[in-house]
Amino acid sequence: MFDGDEVYCDDMAGCKQMGWYQRLMYMTACIVAVFGIAAPAWASGVAAGAAQTLDAEVARTAIAQAERAVSRAAAQRMLWTTADEALRSARRAFEDGDLAAALAQARVAKEHSELAIAQKRYPPFRI
Predict the structure, then answer these.
(1) Which residues make Cβ contacts (< 8 Å) with residue 110, sequence separation at least 6?
(2) Of 40, 46, 103, 111, which is the most exposed, with the fewest CB atoms less than 10 Å away?
(3) Are residues 59 and 113 both part of a single domain?
(4) What is the mean pLDDT of the chain?
(5) Domain limits at 92?
(6) The pairing of beta strand 14-15 with beta strand 9-10
(7) Which residues pair with 14 in a beta bridge?
(8) H or E element at residue 10
(9) Are 15 and 39 in the same domain?
(10) What DSSP designation does 127 have?
(11) Which of 11, 27, 44 is the endpoint of a domain?
(12) What is the C-alpha to C-alpha distance for residues 109 and 15, in angstroms, rounded to an integer?
């Protein structure tokens, strides 16, 4: 079993028992976490970054993109209720002036609509 005396920890150098593989896995997880959080914002095309402040136009663009995605899903009769509810929440948040919530809910509505359309390509389940 684990004996506390086997591990020597130094504040400056960290644990000496951590092997190169564990350090590699730790660094990989950190990199994936950073890019996993940032990638959806880049993919949406309406991310508010350092050069672009979050204003009403950004939220309005995100809601318009979500409305188009929801209407495409509804036209194919593949609209998920979560996408419809997120779009309604985005509109409500925009009207209340909560632009961050409106942007987040618009992204959810767009993503769920795209997933619903993609689900149509899967074969039906057979018993």
Answers:
(1) 44, 62, 65, 66, 69, 70, 83
(2) 40
(3) yes
(4) 77
(5) 46-127
(6) antiparallel
(7) 10
(8) strand 9-10
(9) yes
(10) -
(11) 44
(12) 45
